């Protein structure tokens, strides 16, 4: 196992070095991503600043949800970007090349085209700092929220990776999965940036059971920001992350065993 992860680290470094060969493209891409990310949160901030709070959730609390989701997604997409782009490998036959490599296919896929996402990282970190500082100043939380938040970001990244991996595995049967990914990843993550209490019960159930993105930020925040349920909630989320990862890996292996080459 250590041998595979050492090899994965080498491939990651190689991918990053290849991307840094085009520094101007990297800088422009970072600036554009920064503007998009800032615009997204500013829209939320303007609305909440107008009305003060939504369903009892303040601007700082919504900022916290936004930041945790952003940082979890950044962590996932940095180290497993091409899991989200498996469709390209299936339609072009590039996956066949990964099958010939002397390492697990998933690790080979994850080491392809590693994305550096400094804009998302800086923006998410800035919003998180602002949110935590505001909540601490108001006396709502203490410094203990910081380690709990770091754990929530890590477990959130695991959950998002598991959702992305399971969605990608569907491609072994459907091949074309872009529209499905729009639902399971893009749309669901955007919805979970807001408090789930805003949505009808059927949609809350969908975001907690069918696609468990609500466990990335909303569920941990109930304890971290509001002290509800107790510390066991964070441990339960970590256990859930391990379970969904295990299920996703099992589904991935099953799908890979059914893979048929495009013949191209």
TrEMBL record:
<dbReference type="Pfam" id="PF06182">
    <property type="entry name" value="ABC2_membrane_6"/>
</dbReference>
<feature type="transmembrane region" description="Helical">
    <location>
        <begin position="26"/>
        <end position="48"/>
    </location>
</feature>
<keyword id="KW-1133">Transmembrane helix</keyword>
<dbReference type="InterPro" id="IPR010390">
    <property type="entry name" value="ABC-2_transporter-like"/>
</dbReference>
<feature type="transmembrane region" description="Helical">
    <location>
        <begin position="232"/>
        <end position="252"/>
    </location>
</feature>
<keyword id="KW-0812">Transmembrane</keyword>
<keyword id="KW-0472">Membrane</keyword>
<feature type="transmembrane region" description="Helical">
    <location>
        <begin position="202"/>
        <end position="225"/>
    </location>
</feature>
<protein>
    <submittedName>
        <fullName>ABC transporter permease</fullName>
    </submittedName>
</protein>
<feature type="transmembrane region" description="Helical">
    <location>
        <begin position="148"/>
        <end position="174"/>
    </location>
</feature>
């Amino acid at each position: 196992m250590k041998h595979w992860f050492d090899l994965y680290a080498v491939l990651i470094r190689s991918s990053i070095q290849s991307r840094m060969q085009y520094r101007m493209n990297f800088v422009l891409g970072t600036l554009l991503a920064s503007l998009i990310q800032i615009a997204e949160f500013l829209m939320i901030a303007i609305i909440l600043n107008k009305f003060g709070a939504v369903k009892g959730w303040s601007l700082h609390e919504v900022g916290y949800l936004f930041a945790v989701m952003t940082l979890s997604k950044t962590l996932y997409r940095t180290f497993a970007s091409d899991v989200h782009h498996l469709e390209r490998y299936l339609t072009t036959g590039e996956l066949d090349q990964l099958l010939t490599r002397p390492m697990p296919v998933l690790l080979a896929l994850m080491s392809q085209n590693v994305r550096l996402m400094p804009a998302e990282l800086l923006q998410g970190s800035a919003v998180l700092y602002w949110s935590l500082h505001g909540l601490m100043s108001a006396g709502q939380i203490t410094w203990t929220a910081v380690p709990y938040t770091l754990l929530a970001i890590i477990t959130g990244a695991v959950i998002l990776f598991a959702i992305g991996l399971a969605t990608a595995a569907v491609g072994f049967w459907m091949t074309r999965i872009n529209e499905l990914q729009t639902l399971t990843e893009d749309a669901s993550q955007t919805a979970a940036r807001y408090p789930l209490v805003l949505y009808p019960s059927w949609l809350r159930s969908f975001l907690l059971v069918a696609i468990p993105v609500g466990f990335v930020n909303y569920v941990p925040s109930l304890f971290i920001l509001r002290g509800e349920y107790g510390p066991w909630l964070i441990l339960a989320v970590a256990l859930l992350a391990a379970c969904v990862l295990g299920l996703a890996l099992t589904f991935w292996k099953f799908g890979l065993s059914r893979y048929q080459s495009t013949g191209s």
